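ok so for the tutorial part 2 we go from a plain amino acid sequence to predicted structure tokens. step 1 is just haveing the sequence, like this:
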Amino acid sequence: MVSPAPPSRAKTALMLAAAVLFSTAFGLAIPNGAEAGATLRISDKQEARSCAYATKHGSRAQRREYARSCELVGATDLTPATRVMGSSARTQRSTYQNPVYGFSFPDPGVLQNGTSDYYAYSTGSGFPILHSTDLVNWRSVGKALPTRPSWVVPSGDSHPWAASALRTSRSCPGTTSPGCYLLYYTGLSGQHSPTTDCVAVAYSPAPAGPFSDLGPLQAADGAADGTGRPLGCGDDAGYGNIDPAPFVDGDGRAYLYLSTSRRCAAPTTGTCPYAPVISVIPLGDDLVRASAPRKPLLVASPGTWEQDPDHAAQVENPWMHKRNGIYYLLYSGGYYGASYGMGYATASSPTGGTPYAAFSKAPINPILSETADVLSPGGGTTTKGPQGGDWMVYHARAGSYTQPRTLRIDPLVWKKNGSVTVRGPTTAPQSPAP
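step 2 — the prediction. this is what the tokens look like for a chain of 434 residues:
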């Protein structure tokens, strides 16, 4: 990989000052190499100021956690590349090989926090976080929610699924922080009957957390459905919301895409049939409440690649990507523990047309599917590489369906007719790197 351009002298001083603040205030060692004149490349001024703010204004317990997570990010930035392939410096800068993180990290929600500054948030207890400067070398920097949210079931599997993050220049709720990072995630609510999956929101002044939980997504007016569920958990037309993915359009309007597991033919306090649909909820200016009801966008199609033979048809893990005025809604289909893949649908607006058929599925689907060497690829999100170009960051298994879902990357390939595919899944050394 080609190293990013060095930051300005002012930025360098700000980063180093933040590192010194962390180390002196909390007895934490500055990473090796971060001596006078060295650079902690924590993306940009907003992130450095956010880290400094968090370590000063967080609760006593949070201040130490913020200091630790920000320091770990700095250590990642200063760590020499360890997963690039090849023997020559030229080859090392241009080659990658999957998996780029060989441990379990399913449903990676990637956040590009700067030209060469990436975070990924995973399904798993507390929502594990990885950091990278090049999309190839990744390091664990902790968990987004170190303690179980109070609203989820108190024991057992809390369904901590598919978290994604959004950066905003607004202050975090109830603070004067210089910017904020919002985490949208899934949890299993123990407060509703039937027990319901909900999408919720948490915030942090620093992208590596820890995040403060706000609970399930609420409507701006506080309205609930006939069973008392807030909008993040469901409505009279369906419930069981999972896999939230935020998107901010060019006009500044924000949307939260998600998968809704159950569809109700009529309002009921009972159980509705399992019938997954991809939905969208418009967000308000504060980005933590909904500004309009949920709109169903597309449904799962039985008998297609979206259905594993031994399971119901599925559409989940949505991700919005806009290009040349077209809205590409990427999503996963099949069964995550067996045959799985990714496809996309398009529309001319972020909410599309007629409900349940608001986006048109691409005839070339799936654009990412399993091979003999790569099983269950999916749960992907897209981002720009450090050198430009669009990349898919996704998970997949190797060897058998019992193996962990590890982190992988491969480029998106755009065709002149507007269609898109993924150049993958790959396992051999690939050139060029992001």
